[in-house]
From TrEMBL:
Gene3D superfamilies: MFS general substrate transporter like domains. InterPro entries: MFS, MFS_dom, MFS_trans_sf. The keyword Transmembrane helix applies. It is found in: Membrane. This is Major facilitator superfamily (MFS) profile domain-containing protein. Pfam families: MFS_1. Residues 1-11 have a biased composition (Low complexity). GO terms for molecular function: biotin transmembrane transporter activity; dethiobiotin transmembrane transporter activity; solute:proton symporter activity. GO terms for biological process: biotin import across plasma membrane. Its main location: membrane. The keyword Transport applies. Residues 56-491 form the Major facilitator superfamily (MFS) profile domain.
Length: 510
């Protein structure tokens, strides 16, 4: 494409060739724009967006970590969730599996809704409903209630992770996305660590006013989550641009007036940002045929399997990490177990901060970085399983935590990189939802079939459960290699009905 074409027709019609080489277009834009000014703009956006997404993900992740810990809280006094509700291993494994089933069923529909509505309002809705449901945990009194409310928790939380990935794609180009996803993904690790510390504190007030420690934790957590969810309506900005003029009724105008925050950039910064990210605002219209096309695209399935392995391992350790620690060292008190659980996720945080920046800087090597992180996970799980001494086994959990950190952010940014050029906006949204939704079958496997779902494995110190996590992580490596080999060989031509699509930019006015 000639330089005159770049300068003269960028804001006009976008033909088939431009849609096929979005990433090359974006690289050319970077050459034209002042990189120093762009860096300042994205740092400014970071200060506004990343803390909000971090708090959002911290709170929605905290509930799952909280649930795993309440299974053992105050066990010496017979007041853990399992003991106080007389739960069996079948009850807990079924409840954990149904939680992820809720995610799997509703992830794609929730993310499709987000392409049509105000994204910041939808994300706030998720947080508020998660808080409401977890507040109800404090009223549980039988196994049926636990199973039902775990499923409901999955339903109301569906779309959280793919929704945030989609939201980031609206504000950041792909070569800046992995690091940002990694930044707020640290919230999951921090929430796991903080949950361990907080649960130790709530165990100290067990029995206060007739409530168990786990009931106090759910009440407190749910109330805080609802309050923060409401604040997100003003904290998170809406889309950076409004594409095509849309008629607004009185209700929508009133809502936008009181529940939509101002744009975080001034006019000059917005124009520079627009020029840098306008490639993202192509192919915004979609049909159910596009959704079917994405589902049947062969490239989505290796990405799902990649996510399946690493998330299965991650959530297996998130839910049963404290169980593994306790089994390896039975002399530890429940409070000490909670305190030792936290550093696993601090190491995970370290992996995110040290590795994800390289996945953005060297996009072509994302598959290599992903596979390297998976190898670190495998090494950690092998050490946890076969090392001599409880503390050596514990060190293996720290190693595995470090490897887990960068894997999920790479999966999400790579899926957007692969599916946006052909499918546009819906490709980013649906691929993220499919990868995280169906990939969560790994979480179902780890929480339903392994550890407490495999009682016979306890006497083996969960050796076979650990090795199953090693196996599915190895499958993730194989899937990553397959995805790399086919990503540029499948469906590279834009569909005929997309060839003549023309986007007229009507950027949002304050």
């Amino acid at each position: 494409m000639s330089s005159s074409s770049e300068q003269g027709s960028r804001s006009k019609s976008l033909d088939i060739e431009e849609n096929q080489i979005d990433n090359n277009d974006h690289d050319n834009i970077h050459d034209e724009l002042n990189k120093h000014e762009l860096d300042k703009i994205y740092r400014k956006l970071d200060f506004r967006i990343i803390p909000a997404l971090w708090c959002l993900y911290f709170l929605t992740s905290f509930g799952s970590n909280c649930y795993g810990l309440t299974l053992t809280m105050n066990s010496e006094a017979g007041h853990s969730l399992i003991q106080s509700l007389n739960l069996t291993s079948k009850h807990t494994s079924t409840a954990s599996a149904l939680y992820y089933v809720g995610y799997i069923i509703f992830d794609v529909p929730m993310n499709l809704v987000m392409t049509k509505v105000s994204p910041q309002s939808w994300l706030a809705r998720i947080v508020i409903t998660v808080g409401l449901v977890y507040t109800c945990y404090s009223a549980l009194h039988n196994s049926g209630g636990v199973i039902a409310i775990r499923f409901i928790s999955g339903v109301v939380g569906a779309g959280t992770w793919p929704g945030m990935s989609y939201y980031v794609s609206l504000w950041y180009p792909n070569d800046r996305a992995t690091r940002r996803i990694g930044y707020y993904f640290t919230a999951a690790q921090m929430s796991a660590a903080v949950a361990g510390l907080v649960s130790a504190g709530f165990q100290k007030i067990d029995g206060n006013r007739g409530y168990y420690g786990w009931q106090w934790m759910y009440l407190t957590y749910g109330s805080i989550t609802i309050a923060v969810g409401i604040s997100l309506l003003w904290w998170l900005p809406d889309r950076p641009f409004r594409i095509t003029k849309q008629s607004e009724n009185k209700v929508k105008k009133l809502y936008n007036r009181y529940f939509t925050t101002s744009h975080p950039l001034n006019d000059t910064e917005r124009e520079l940002h627009r020029r840098d990210i306008e490639y993202r605002y192509k192919l915004l219209k979609w049909t159910w045929g596009d959704v079917v096309a994405i589902i049947t695209d062969l490239r989505i399935w290796p990405l799902i399997i990649m996510y399946f392995g690493v998330v299965g391992t991650g959530f297996g350790l998130a839910v049963f990490g404290s169980t593994i620690i306790k089994t390896n060292n039975p002399n530890l008190s429940s409070i000490n177990v909670s305190l030792l659980y936290a550093p696993i996720w601090l190491f995970d945080l370290g992996g995110i901060l040290t590795i994800t920046p390289f996945a953005d800087r060297y996009k072509k090597f994302r598959p290599v970085i992903f596979c390297g992180a998976c190898i670190i996970i495998i090494i950690g799980m092998v050490v946890t399983t076969f090392a001599h001494g409880s503390w050596n086994k514990y060190a293996g959990l720290l190693i595995a935590g470090y490897g887990l950190g960068p894997t999920v952010p790479i999966c999400m940014s790579w899926s957007a990189e692969i599916f946006f050029p052909r499918y546009g906006d819906v490709g980013t949204a649906v691929s993220a939802a499919l990868v995280s939704g169906l990939g969560n079958l790994g979480s179902v496997t780890a929480t339903y079939a392994l550890y407490s779902g495999w009682p016979e494995d306890r006497k083996r110190l969960y050796r076979d459960s650990n090795m199953m996590l090693v196996l599915i992580t190895g499958v993730s490596i194989i899937a990553c290699i397959v995805c790399y080999l086919i990503k540029d060989k499948v469906r590279q031509d834009l569909p005929h009905d997309k060839e003549e699509e023309i986007i007229e930019y009507n950027w949002m006015e304050e």
